[in-house]
Design goal:
Nucleoside Triphosphate Pyrophosphohydrolase; 2 domains; seven-stranded mixed sheet; three-stranded antiparallel sheet; elongated; Nudix hydrolase domain-containing protein; NUDIX_hydrolase_dom; NUDIX_hydrolase-like_dom_sf
């Protein structure tokens, strides 16, 4: 079992810990939130470091896709994430699992919140749940901890081509109650281009699982 323990006083440290600008040498730090626990201490490997364990079993992503002219196109959401730079980037639709929620329920909720898409018919893609940062995140795939990926087929007639060569939902889809800005934030593009253009490792992993299912 992976466990962070207190750091013995004589242990050489690789991390400098600053609190309000002042250096301290704590034996153990634990920061908790509704999403999970961030810990700093002695790792099982024998050195100091930090880890993050998600509280409710991880997260879920949705990869909507279609087939156009014999090619598989996948939908990613264009959004601004300041931790990935100033320019909007393409990311997978999805997020954390909330308390008392299954991975499937999480992807349905996240898809609705982020895009207005009804993904209740989405298919869970085969494969172990993903650990999205193997250096620091703590998961146990045997306990279904990590990120599950789902796919949802979108008929071509629900999409329209844009001036930049990508595809997006038409104005009558997916749900008239959702702001059009949310619908049009989802960009569909050929899977090879999507992999090259997204900096989101979870999106790349989800696309790989989709291809393993379709090809």
């Amino acid at each position: 079992m992976f466990e962070i323990k207190p750091i013995p006083a004589e242990t050489k440290r690789g991390w400098k810990v600053l609190i309000d600008g002042a250096e301290i040498k704590p034996a153990h730090i634990s920061l908790e939130s509704g999403f999970g626990t961030l810990e700093y201490g002695l790792r099982p490997e024998g050195y100091d470091g930090w880890t993050f364990k998600e509280k409710n079993g991880g997260g879920s992503i949705l990869i909507p896709y279609s087939r156009i002219d014999g090619d598989i196109i996948v939908g990613l959401i264009e959004e601004r994430r300041l931790n990935i730079g100033e320019t909007p980037v393409l990311c997978a639709i999805g997020g954390f699992v909330d308390p008392h929620e299954s991975h499937r329920d999480a992807q349905i909720r996240e898809a609705r919140e982020e895009t207005g898409l009804d993904s209740s018919e989405a298919k869970r893609l085969e494969g172990l749940p993903a650990n999205t940062n193997r250096s620091f995140f703590v998961t146990d795939p045997s306990l279904d901890e990590g990120v599950d990926a789902y796919s949802l087929y979108v008929p071509q007639e629900r999409l329209r081509k844009t001036s930049d060569g990508t595809w997006q939902f038409g104005d009558d889809a997916p749900d008239p109650d959702v702001m059009i800005e949310k619908r049009h934030a989802v960009r569909f593009l050929p899977w090879r281009e999507a992999i090259r253009r997204t900096p989101d490792a979870i999106a790349r992993a989800g696309i790989a699982q989709l291809l393993a299912d379709l090809l």
